User: Which sequence fits this backbone?
């Protein structure tokens, strides 16, 4: 039976500003990427999101980003690999403390936004992030764009690496995500999204914006928690996956059942 993880970026509210309906979306996803305070999130939001994830039986991971609250971590910054390493270690540590209160293990680490994109194409940044995750705990799973520099770095250092695909994003012929600066970057039609996801999971390929098929591996599917219809999107994708006899389960639970 085909199995896949369904993840969402959560805990991205800040202070008095609320983003996303995480109480509802946690009913459908199996892994939560929790913001650690650099691009979004604050201590209270982190604590609340950890508790919600635990209550819903959802596996928890750190979602480190660039220190850019105004730009929501989606603007490139000229950082060194050493700075990337330090940022990731620091943010993992922040979330680990909240998990320690509940004696809850951390499942994974997934970089956010521009840091994720930079690591997908820049070998030096990718290796620094993979090393940061490994140095904190070799048992952590690294979520990385399928067949990118980050997934290669994770595998090379010995991390369990989950190749990630996106339900609501379009792809370029080189396997990279279409830049959010382009009008066709996001998929808003549920059926188009579901069809893309099913093809990626069952056939290991995605149709690029250039009309070519790109081979990839799909271990985990991302649904952005800040989307306008994120909850409905998550429910629809889950129902379609189940209808295709694709089991939705967290990476850690899949590993334990082997």
Assistant:
């Amino acid at each position: 039976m085909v199995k896949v993880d369904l993840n969402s970026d959560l805990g991205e509210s800040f202070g008095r500003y609320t983003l996303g309906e995480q109480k509802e979306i946690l009913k459908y996803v199996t892994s939560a990427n929790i913001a650690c305070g650099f691009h979004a999130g604050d201590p209270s939001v982190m604590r609340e999101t950890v508790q919600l994830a635990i209550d819903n039986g959802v596996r928890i991971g750190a979602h480190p980003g660039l220190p850019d609250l105004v730009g929501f971590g989606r603007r490139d910054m000229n950082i060194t690999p050493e700075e990337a390493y330090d940022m990731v270690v620091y943010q993992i540590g922040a979330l680990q403390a909240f998990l320690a209160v509940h004696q809850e293990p951390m499942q994974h680490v997934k970089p956010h936004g521009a840091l994720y994109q930079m690591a997908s194409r820049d070998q030096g940044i990718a290796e620094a992030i993979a090393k940061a995750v490994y140095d904190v705990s070799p048992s952590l799973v690294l979520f990385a764009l399928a067949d990118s520099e980050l997934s290669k770095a994770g595998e090379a250092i010995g991390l369990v690496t989950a190749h990630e695909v996106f339900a609501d994003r379009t792809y370029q012929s080189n396997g990279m995500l279409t830049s959010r600066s382009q009008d066709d970057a996001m998929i808003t039609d549920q059926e188009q999204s579901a069809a893309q996801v099913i093809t990626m999971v069952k056939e290991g390929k995605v149709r690029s914006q250039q009309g070519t098929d790109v081979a990839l591996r799909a271990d985990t599917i991302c649904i952005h928690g800040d989307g306008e219809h994120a909850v409905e999107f998550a429910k629809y994708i889950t129902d379609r996956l189940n209808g295709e006899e694709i089991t939705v389960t967290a990476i850690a639970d899949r590993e334990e059942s082997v």
